[in-house]
Amino acid sequence: MEAPATSTTQSDLNSSIHAPTNITVDQAMSTPPSPSTTHTKTVEEEAILAHLALVEANRSILSQNGINHRTILPQFTPTPTGGFPKVHMAHSTQIFDHLDNKVLLAWFQVEHPKFMVRVFDHYSRDIVEKTAIIAECLHTSISIIVDYIHQEVPPVCVSPLQPQGGRGSKDFPIRFLVHKVPEETRNLIVSQCIWSTMDITFEVLPFNCTHPPELLFCLSGFTTSDVEIVRKAVADVWLLDENRHHIDNTFSMCGFQDDELVYKATWDLIKSIHIKILDFKITGGLSVPRFNIFTTSPTNDLKTWTDLQGFLHLLEYLTGLDSCRIAVVLYPCQICHSLAHPCGLCPFPNIPQWNGPKLNNRTSANTSCQMGRSRGRAG
Description:
By secondary structure, the chain is of the alpha+beta class.
């Protein structure tokens, strides 16, 4: 028997113009409607879900069920807004410089997860005399991090180094290998990069060849302090036909498939130029600004980048009204070992709540010596 014509279904009531306009809101306050199983997610929705998955993955690393899951690590300087300053190295494999080949081969054979650490504010002499002490300080600090994450301390290993030429070597590495750590711990430690306590401060580096360094060289002698004038001067010199052709030829040797890709690599290099000024001062407080020249390499080929850096380093850079200068020698900071500044201009001691090494008599003496040599070479 058919239903009377006057009967009304629930769906008809919901769609009626007399239905409350807030019915959807009322549903949301109680039981939310089930999502359609046939819904096709948009790109934006996919991005949101991917981001939430990443956040959850990170939360699983840092959040535990035990007593330590809300603990802050007061031993370490907290990461500042924007992250720690970058430590600039001379080349992409500098973390393996001056290591004895047998030791390096042994380190290659150590299974992952593993990473390298470079100790702040120590020189070759310190490493020779205090290898065991430094290794134990590193072990203690890394074990604190591991215990914070896992509420237990796996058998973390810190391997000391052996330089080429033995303990009497002039170039003694200041790096250690850390291994036998859980992978998630390795990822967390490497991602923060800088770990600083009252006892020891160290930079963490992945056990691989990094991307070519961004720091190319430093220019000194300009009478201007305008970084845009210097940036334009550098770009104009690289764009000179002879120099640009040399850059093109260098990139053409490293695997770019055709002239268009070579052309793009050259222009990407030039467009990536950025400048940072160093406020050098001489006796009497007179400012003698220096300019660090940074770029982003379009290739990871070590030989190509080494050849290109050597060529660009030797060019003369003319501004027209502000003198003509060439690159000066870079010396590592005695605090963080970065080539981007002397220790008197090291940014790390200015970080809020920094508990690592600061400028002291030992480092200031070395800085004065370095700056004196730099001025002499800059001529």
